[in-house]
Amino acid sequence: EPLRYQSPRSDPDPWEVLHRQKRSWVWNQFFVLEEYTGNEPLYVGKLHSDVDKGDGKVKYVLSGEGATSIFTIDENTGDIHATKRLDREAQAYYTLQAQAVDRITNLPVEPRSEFVVKVQDINDNEPKFIDGPYLAGVPEMSPLGTMVVQVAATDADDPTYGNSARVVYSIIHGQPYFSVEPKTGVIRTALSNMDRETRDQYVLVIQAKDMVGQMGGLSGTTSVTVTLTDVNDNPPRFTHKSYQYTVLESLPVQSVVARIKAADADIGSNAEMDYRIMDGDAPGQFNITTDENTQEGMIILLKPLDFETKSSFSLRIEATNRNIDSNFLSLGSFSDTTSVKVTVEDVNEPPVFSKALSELVVSEDAKVGTSIGRVSAHDPDTSNNAIRFSIDRNTDLERFFNVDALSGVISTAKPLDREANSVHNLTIFAIESQDPTQIGRGVALVTVQDINDNAPVFAIDYETLLCENAMPGQVIQTISAVDKDEPLRGHRFYFALAAPVAGNPNFTLRDNKDNTASILTKRDGFRRRQQPVYRLPVLIVDSGSPALSSTNTLLVRVCDCDSDGVALSCGAVAYTATGLSTGALLAILGCIITDGSAHRDDEERDIRENIVRYDDEGGGEEDTEAFDMVTLRNLNVIRDPSVRRDVTPDTPTFFHYPSASRPPYKSLPDNVVFREFIWDRLKDADVDPSAPPYDSLQTYAFEGSGSVAESLSSLESLSTDSDQNYDYLSNWGPRFKKLADLYGNSDGTGVFS
């Protein structure tokens, strides 16, 4: 007889036999009820082998999941018990192995066989809303049955066995406004036309119950917060049919006159509105715009107010929703109108000029006290107070003009000069006599008319060179003239040689009729040794009425020129009676200049002019071969702080640094020495009263501490005393002109013949 398995499960056929080929085991599933609460071990089932004759020679052995810890087997009878309470939701089944062995030899009498212990479910878990609590929204005024949100509950019990996991939904709190579908958990509106402005939020309690809602089922709940979202179902409405505001007539243009708001119970974009002025008794006087933050209508002043002209204004204003929902047009018009009255209050205004700008003209030869025009102003207030006039002297610092305090007549107070100032921009004050704080301002633009009071002169200082080999009729200079006057028809100048030299044999003048003239030679054969310089007086006459003229002297130097007409040397010939050549004289001149700067005291040397080393770009502060840092550290020994090295003061220096105020350079680290040196130079320039009051170049470079060859600079050569006379340099031609200007003092004593 095959092995049998016996289970306490109440099935139609409690003895289920499974025949295996080549084995005498008969096995099936065991079922154990979860959450058993009895005091004794729970009987699971029984195993029996055909080999077991009941004589105690066969022993049953159990292994696998939970063997010995949860499940035990009676080795003699094969009875299986569960010693612990089981939870299907923790583990639904256990896989075990059973074997029958010989009690004495422990050898198997049957092959090992596997069976399953399945935990049978009971309804021990209530439904749970995993996603709760819920937040949802639905538009206000929604139709009946509009879906709001769907809720879902889960039950950990076995959905394949019984009704333990079959859930139905119901609403515990939230009626009659909302309902829930029992099977799906879909929440819908149960009333139509719910108004957000009346109530905007509802809190629902939804229950889920297993066992299909039957008695004894377990349940769980969740909350659903439903918010009604806004729709534009409320039109704007002004709280008053008319409004009154008062403003001062001095209110600036673009100021806010008043704020007006139409109430709208909606929110957000549904409460946005536009305002407009429908009608008014002063078109263009005001405008209205919407304040986007508050949705107020701001009435803006576009034109100045004048109490004396108009003291009140009436406006008709409309407010309209921007975003109108066509579904609610049946509720009425989404706009409203109201009346606004603006009253203007009088203020004491300053006098007003009849013309903000008065343009006046006066001749520059006008006598002192000449009347040139009149300004007028009036008090715009109804009191019409008396007015006194005055000139803002900040616009007439030299007091060229006066104004009569009562009449406003402007007259000259000083002689005028158009060439110095052709236009005077005067600010005129009009002051109320009763209230001097009320001041009106006007502008009088006085243009000075030109008269011919300036004679023409040479346009520049001409340098005229005449080659000894010049031919008769050769143009040696073209001259032009300038005149400070500005005649209406432009300048016209006439040129001629002055009467004393009109018929001279050497030069002639040709008027080119274009405000220029040419100087020409009459002969050839000019020689420097005979006469090195000619002075030619030129008469220039303008076209004014009356005409003015001036005599200007043109200096003509006779020069030795090369074949191309380039001047090599000009003026008087330098005689070399000692037999020295020109080159030798230049060498002597260079020695004199050098000697003048080489014999100064050591303390007067400017350390910036010394050359430390040649052919060496230097290695910065780390290079101690090309430059000795010890020299820089001892600058305070060789430098007099009260002497300016970069300018020569015309006045003595009264400020001296105290010797204790300068830190010794030797006490400073290498990277600070240069900075301190530059800062000291900067302080010298800032506090020295002999410093020039104009922009000047201050040199802060440091190049070394001295040289055995002394300074090669000639910048201070002019300050040395010398008996040398360098006047002859002016006779050496244009190449030595700079030296002649620096060292020479030639007056050019030649005369015209």
Can you give a write-up of this model?
The chain is mainly β. Among the domains are: 29-120, Cadherins (Immunoglobulin-like); 128-229, Immunoglobulin-like (Sandwich); 237-345, Cadherins (Immunoglobulin-like, Sandwich), CATH 2.60.40.60; 352-449, Cadherins (Immunoglobulin-like), CATH 2.60.40; 457-569, Cadherins (Immunoglobulin-like), CATH 2.60.40. The strands form twelve sheets. Strands 35, 37, 40, 41 and 42 form a five-stranded mixed sheet that branches. The protein is elongated, with a radius of gyration of 60 Å. The model is unreliable at 9-27, 576-581, 584-614, 633-641, 643-661 and 746-753 (pLDDT under 50).
Write the layout of secondary structure elements.
Layout: E1 4-6, E2 30-33, E3 42-48, E4 58-64, E5 71-73, E6 79-82, E7 93-102, E8 113-120, E9 134-139, E10 147-150, E11 168-173, E12 178-180, E13 186-189, E14 201-209, E15 219-229, E16 237-238, E17 242-248, E18 256-260, E19 262-263, E20 273-280, E21 286-291, E22 296-301, E23 312-321, E24 335-345, E25 352-353, E26 357-363, E27 371-374, E28 377-378, E29 387-391, E30 401-403, E31 409-412, E32 423-432, E33 439-449, E34 457-458, E35 464-467, E36 475-482, E37 494-497, E38 507-511, E39 516-521, E40 533-541, E41 549-561, E42 567-570, H1 582-598, H2 629-633, H3 635-638, H4 670-687, H5 737-743
Parallel strand pairs: 2-8, 9-15, 17-24, 26-33, 35-41
Antiparallel strand pairs: 1-3, 3-6, 4-7, 5-6, 7-8, 10-13, 11-14, 12-13, 14-15, 16-19, 18-22, 20-23, 21-22, 23-24, 25-28, 27-31, 29-32, 30-31, 32-33, 34-36, 36-39, 37-40, 38-39, 40-41, 41-42
